[in-house]
Amino acid sequence: MNELTILISCPDQVGLVTNITRILAAHQLNIIAMREFVDEANKAFFTRIACTGELKDTNLLEEKLLETLPDAAEVNVITRKEKQIAVLVTKEYHCLAEILIKNQFKTLGANVQCVIGNYESLRNFSEKLGIPYFFVDHNNKEKAQFEAEIKEILNHFDLDYLVLAKFMRILSADFVKDYAGKVINIHHSFLPAFIGANPYKQAFERGVKIIGATAHFVTDHLDEGPIITQHTTHIDHNFSVKDMVRAGKEIEKKVLLEALELIFEDRVFVSGNKTVIFK
Ligand SMILES: Nc1nc2c(c(=O)[nH]1)N[C@@H](CN(C=O)c1ccc(C(=O)N[C@@H](CCC(=O)O)C(=O)O)cc1)CN2
């Protein structure tokens, strides 16, 4: 018995659930879990439906669903398949390590195809775990050239997502457009506070009493993409920037892996610059 996940977003109207469930029944699909949300402000409807059944033609089901839904509906019928990802890194290992350890034990919910770093620092670690590592130097070259070299590598893989695991280079609007909705970043602050470089230094100078981390989709507005998940921890006047960095690392790992789990289980909708998440 196959398991399917059906994601639907569309303008809200009366009768959506009736029409959707009728079509699923007509395709002999058994609903085992169903979540819905209506964004009243934008009159938008979202649903995530887990089904079991033998679906012969995914495209036909999508067509039948679209026929019954209002215009501008989006339907995504997902058969269980492991997501394929690449991870971009700079020098810090803590987020990469969490990802590769879960990848090693097949508990990530995705398959890491490669790691790309703008330093050599994390090559040994990646290759010891059998993951191909590609070094792309950002020095002494234009951003466009740097990104072209990254894309050249990425094009060898059929990827679902790119994960920025403390990758410290700003990606151009062109690059982000080519991977729209597929790039996830872990930012080391409780956004919208402290966007950009050195958020812990910014936090120290501001004298905040909590710090945090935010996983978000990457857009060409630095650190302002749709937020997926966040966590915080309390600090006090005794914390130096170094103490914040140390405490922050634990939060960053937790936030990124929680966000990846939600994404890999197809629980995340993007709605404008926000997300709707069915946990
Ligand atoms: N288009 C985007 N690219 C990246 C994002 C993003 O949200 N949109 N997030 C960053 C990660 N990041 C914070 O989480 C971040 C990394 C680096 C810097 C920065 O200023 N870096 C360099 C220069 C950057 C460059 O020119 O490439 C610096 O320190 O001067 C700010 C925020 C990853 N990319």
TrEMBL record:
<dbReference type="InterPro" id="IPR045865">
    <property type="entry name" value="ACT-like_dom_sf"/>
</dbReference>
<protein>
    <recommendedName>
        <fullName>Formyltetrahydrofolate deformylase</fullName>
        <ecNumber>3.5.1.10</ecNumber>
    </recommendedName>
</protein>
<keyword id="KW-0658">Purine biosynthesis</keyword>
<feature type="active site">
    <location>
        <position position="223"/>
    </location>
</feature>
<dbReference type="InterPro" id="IPR002912">
    <property type="entry name" value="ACT_dom"/>
</dbReference>
<dbReference type="GO" id="GO:0006730">
    <property type="term" value="P:one-carbon metabolic process"/>
</dbReference>
<keyword id="KW-0554">One-carbon metabolism</keyword>
<dbReference type="InterPro" id="IPR044074">
    <property type="entry name" value="PurU_ACT"/>
</dbReference>
<comment type="function">
    <text>Catalyzes the hydrolysis of 10-formyltetrahydrofolate (formyl-FH4) to formate and tetrahydrofolate (FH4).</text>
</comment>
<dbReference type="InterPro" id="IPR036477">
    <property type="entry name" value="Formyl_transf_N_sf"/>
</dbReference>
<dbReference type="Pfam" id="PF00551">
    <property type="entry name" value="Formyl_trans_N"/>
</dbReference>
<feature type="domain" description="ACT">
    <location>
        <begin position="5"/>
        <end position="80"/>
    </location>
</feature>
<dbReference type="InterPro" id="IPR004810">
    <property type="entry name" value="PurU"/>
</dbReference>
<comment type="similarity">
    <text>Belongs to the PurU family.</text>
</comment>
<dbReference type="GO" id="GO:0006189">
    <property type="term" value="P:'de novo' IMP biosynthetic process"/>
</dbReference>
<dbReference type="GO" id="GO:0008864">
    <property type="term" value="F:formyltetrahydrofolate deformylase activity"/>
</dbReference>
<keyword id="KW-0378">Hydrolase</keyword>
<dbReference type="InterPro" id="IPR002376">
    <property type="entry name" value="Formyl_transf_N"/>
</dbReference>
<comment type="pathway">
    <text>Purine metabolism; IMP biosynthesis via de novo pathway; formate from 10-formyl-5,6,7,8-tetrahydrofolate: step 1/1.</text>
</comment>
<dbReference type="Pfam" id="PF01842">
    <property type="entry name" value="ACT"/>
</dbReference>
